[in-house]
Amino acid sequence: MNEGKIILYSDRMNTATGFTGAGTVEAKADSTYTGGYHELRNSAAEDEQSLKLKEEQLDVSKERVQAGEVEIHKDVVEKQKSVNVPVEHEEVYVERRKVNDAAGVSSSPISDDETIRIPITEERVEVSKKPVVTEEIVIGKREVQETQQVKENLKKEEVHFEGGREHITEDEDLNRKNNNL
After folding, report:
1. Are 18 and 33 within 8 A, CB to CB?
2. Domain edges within the chain
3. What one-character DSSP code corresponds to residue 55?
4. Cα atoms in the 13 Å half-sphere on the side-chain side of 98
5. Residue bearing the bigger pLDDT, 161 or 59
6. Whole-angstrom Cα distance, residue 71 to residue 67?
7. What is the percent of the chain where pLDDT is above 90?
8. CA–CA dist 120, 90 (Å, integer)
């Protein structure tokens, strides 16, 4: 205890402000202290001011856009192809033979009327073309997922105190209470 001073401690609630007054008031030994507890603040709402701090946060969204187009068509290409095909045909042969038998001699007169007809055949190559499916091209789309890294600078407001640091008290209990709201 300090000499020549009186320390008065009061713990009561002011019903007008809802403020619980807990503190000390000093008075000199020769002075007279009259009256109740004097609050340092008239009203908490009148003297308090606030400064809102902001910061930027990333809001990432995706949008589907056309990145290109794939066009697929077919072209007709001609090339010559040679195929060896074996074919058959008939030939007429004429063979002359001597006749030794005179008995086979005919008694008919010689004339121009006698004709022999022999049909002759051959294979002819006919070429026709027909389309035949040899392979199939399947075209489709599929989803492929990849990861892209996005880099962006974000701004954040911070508070800096200037002036006498001895007049500023940070109330950690109050900060925790406000952050939990």
Report:
1. no
2. 1-38
3. B
4. 1
5. 59
6. 14
7. 36
8. 6
Tokens 């209990």, residue?
173
Q: CA-to-CA distance for 21 and 39, rounded, in angstroms?
A: 7
Instruction: List b or e across 16-34, with b for residues whose CB sees 16 or more CB atoms inside 10 angstroms.
Output: eeeeebeeeeeeeeeeeee
For 53-66, the pLDDT digits (tens) are: 999 988 889 999 99
Locate 40 and state its tokens. Answer: 């340092």
Tally the C-alpha atoms within 13 A of residue 23's C-alpha that lie toward its C-beta: 12
Report the pLDDT value the prediction gives residue 145, as an integer from 0 to 100.
93
36 token code pair:
């109740």
Structure tokens of 141?
């789309």
Residues 10 and 23: beta-carbon distance below 8 Å: yes
Question: Is 13 a residue whose pLDDT tops 90?
Answer: no
Q: How far apart are CA 27 and CA 137, in angstroms?
A: 101
Contacts 24+ apart (CB under 8 A), 30-37: 33/6, 33/8, 36/10, 37/10, 37/12
Contacts of residue 125, Cβ cutoff 8 Å, sequence gap at least 6 = 85, 87
What ranges make up the beta strands (E) of the chain? Answer: 5-13, 20-28
**Contacts with 20 (C-beta within 8 Å, 6 or more apart), sequence order:** 11, 12, 13, 14
Residue 45 one-letter amino acid: A
